[in-house]
Design brief:
5% of the residues lie in helices and 49% in strands. It is mainly beta. The strands form six sheets. Strands 2, 4, 5, 7, 9 and 12 form a six-stranded mixed beta sheet that branches.
Length: 232
């Protein structure tokens, strides 16, 4: 059985299992020369690294929770498995071969999974451990655009708002790339970049969908008497 974990147990140092993947977020076209992405996996460990790669459909419900379902048909991945020597890297080509004409963008997770290795029995029970990086890949048709609408906002706790967003466009929205402008009768603030990313509970709104996210707001702003504007 394969166990994929996104963290390291205290008995194993990060340097033992660490590897790097880039890019973590990418955007390609449904056809033509821009319908593929080259990813690079770097083995920063002292041991050979065995990986396999899987593609998943990404869906997000109205509460911002992700669901992944395996997709064996929309991508040609070369190589799909590889052994990477210590200090070396492997290029992986991910080519979209699904529907060439899309009405709206489609979101996927490309998972780079370390095939588990059995730990030394002196470290514990000998449980197999591994890491998995799940990259975000969006297939975006030409001229696709996102449009965001704030449907509702309410105070759920001191310094925390719940905001219902709707994307009426045909392209995904990465909320971390937007600007959130909050204003009351006394002052105005703008949340963006790292500060915004750390404040949001959800990061993506898919095309033609609703998503409710929570955001930490300075406590002097209340949802009932403050204006909110989100700019893409």
């Amino acid at each position: 059985m394969k166990y994929i974990v996104a963290f390291l147990l205290f008995v194993v140092s990060y340097s033992v299992l660490a590897f790097e993947v880039s890019p973590m977020v990418s955007e390609i076209k449904p056809s033509g020369s821009q319908s593929q992405q080259t990813m690079r996996v770097y083995n920063s460990t002292k041991d050979p690294l065995t990986i396999d790669i899987e593609a998943y459909n990404l869906s997000i419900n109205s509460n911002g929770e992700e669901k992944l379902t395996i997709n064996d048909e929309d991508f040609l991945i070369i190589p799909i498995t590889s052994i990477i020597q210590p200090g070396k890297s492997q290029s992986v080509i991910v080519r979209y071969i699904g529907e060439p004409v899309l009405p709206s963008s489609k979101a996927y997770r490309i998972a780079i999974n370390q095939i588990p290795v059995k730990l030394d029995s002196s470290l514990g029970s000998g449980v197999a451990m591994a890491m998995s990086f799940q990259t975000l890949l969006n297939v975006v048709p030409d001229d696709a655009e996102a449009t965001i609408v704030i449907k509702d906002k309410k105070q759920v706790a001191k310094g925390v708002w719940s905001v219902n967003l709707e994307n009426t466009g045909n392209k995904f929205i990465r909320l971390t790339q937007s600007k959130w402008m909050i204003q009351n009768k006394n002052e105005k603030i703008v949340l963006e970049g790292k500060e915004l990313s750390q404040s949001l509970s959800g990061k993506i709104v898919l095309p033609n969908s609703n998503s409710t996210v929570q955001i930490r707001i300075p406590s002097q702003f209340n949802a009932s008497d403050s204006d909110l504007k989100v700019v893409l």
